[in-house]
Amino acid sequence: MIILLLLLFFTKMIAGAPSDSTVFGYIEEHQDIYVQRLKEWVSIESDSSNPEKRCQVVKMMNLTAEQLTQLGATVELVELGKQKLQNGNEIPLPPVILAEIITDPQKPTVCFYGHLDVQPAKYEDGWLTQPYTLEEKNGSMYGRGTSDDKGQVLAVLHAIEALQKHDLPMNVKFVYEGMEEVGSNGLFKLVEERNSTFFSDVDYIVITDTSWLSKKPGITYGTRGNLYFFIEVECARQDLHSGSFGGVVHEATSDLIFLLNTLADSSGRILVPGIYDAVANISNKEKEYFEKAEYNLEEIKAKFGIKNFKYNTKEEVLIQNTCYPSLSIHGIEGAFSASGTKTVIPAKVIGKFSIRLAPKMDPSVVEKQVIEYLHMKFAERNSPNRINITCVIKAKPWVSTDTDGPLYLAGKNAIKKVFNSEADFFREGGTIPIGPQFYEVTGKSTMFLGIGGPDDAHHGQNEKLDRYSEASSKYLFL
Ligand SMILES: *[C@@H]1O[C@H](CO)[C@@H](O)[C@H](O)[C@H]1NC(C)=O
Ligand SMILES: *[C@@H]1O[C@H](CO)[C@@H](O)[C@H](O)[C@H]1NC(C)=O
Ligand SMILES: *[C@@H]1O[C@H](CO)[C@@H](O)[C@H](O)[C@H]1NC(C)=O
Ligand SMILES: *[C@@H]1O[C@H](CO)[C@@H](O)[C@H](O)[C@H]1NC(C)=O
Ligand SMILES: *[C@@H]1O[C@H](CO)[C@@H](O)[C@H](O)[C@H]1NC(C)=O
């Protein structure tokens, strides 16, 4: 709904823009079709992190291209070549969709970005419903990708469809990818290649892949970057028996856990020397945003079953989570993880961790700092084991410098109109690599205007998207 209003706001000056009530009536009548489409999209397991699911990602791109064609868009599916996997094999990257609906070259052009791939999801992880079967309960639509980001992409297409039934008084472009969850492989190069063609007549870029902090709607004006590391440690050619080798070999898993444990202290402070040097200071204007933002720590804790945060106030939590770096340990590949009591000494383990980067931190500098630090720590341990540290995802942080410009004003007004409330302005703790890239390469004003809820559980179990917005009882997903 906000996206629809954003489009309407841009068209205010243009004679013949449809009246709000005719458009809203159309939306009312078509709700079930919209939800049915989302159900179909969710049923496609477009998990970009799993090479075996690659053809599902491609299928998802094809389906989206079809939907765009039905809207009368000119659609190009751009092939990006191959992805080299950790094991040396190569598989095709999913195509990127570049599409456009040009009604009149004189009119403004808004370019929307979103992604059609999803995070992995298994019922056994603790889902209450099958993750790839959309189920509606109490006004929320549950399923992987409902909020991140299939539902948000569909909301854009539905908004355009609803406007088109009357008159689409502007031009729209679309960039949709299928590798966002693993680092947007190949997309950055494509944006550079198409800067003087596809992007040249774009006036504004709107990214629909974010959530609000609370039930109060908001606009995201910055994102953290991300570096994802693998630490591989190998102690033997094959797995060993702890009865035969325990106590006499340098175990790979022990080395790895030692290394992972040197990365941050118990307060969460990252121990890599120099890592905080470049972190940008927060302006007073931003401090005000954080003070005004609606964010209920108690609600979030209750929802996710978290006992306590490391910080006590809303402002501290928001600032730590979005304006400073953080380190998370994600898992150990190759370690025994099944139930039971196997007495194995794994021969080779791969530890996985990532660092979210704050604005001004340079991914290449941080990568070097982290790798040097881990090698130094490993040397202290005197282990003969083979170690290999690689950085597999590198995404830059970003913060907008034109939050007072016309795009943000349009977003603010759209929110005001739908919800009758001021928009919260905040930064995103997560990473959307294409944000900074769009801004850096094209120089066009860029804004994140998502419709995800604060408790939608992106990447988690029981991901959902609300059908209605609580604040206004208007349709959120349309
Ligand atoms: C996607 O579309 C392309 C081009 O039409 C086609 O060659 C390919 O088989 C389709 N793939 C899937 C998985 O649907
Ligand atoms: C349904 O949603 C309402 C409003 O959010 C809530 O009060 C109620 O407990 C929910 N019911 C169930 C069964 O989840
Ligand atoms: C991309 O094109 C815009 C004009 O549309 C130009 O201002 C900008 O400098 C170009 N970016 C690069 C990296 O060449
Ligand atoms: C942040 O502010 C402190 C104290 O005013 C200053 O020493 C530091 O250089 C600033 N950091 C950056 C990245 O500008
Ligand atoms: C380390 O791992 C990377 C990525 O898997 C690989 O390309 C590289 O050859 C490895 N280096 C060593 C020394 O094993």
UniProtKB/TrEMBL annotation:
Transmembrane segments: none annotated. Pfam families: M20_dimer, Peptidase_M20. GO terms for biological process: proteolysis. GO terms for cellular component: cytosol. GO terms for molecular function: dipeptidase activity; metal ion binding. Keywords: Hydrolase, Metal-binding, Protease, Signal. Residues 221-375 form the Peptidase M20 dimerisation domain. The keyword Hydrolase applies. Residues 1-16 form the signal peptide. InterPro entries: Cyt/Met_Dipeptidase, Peptidase_M20, Peptidase_M20_dimer. This is Peptidase M20 dimerisation domain-containing protein. It comes from Anolis carolinensis.
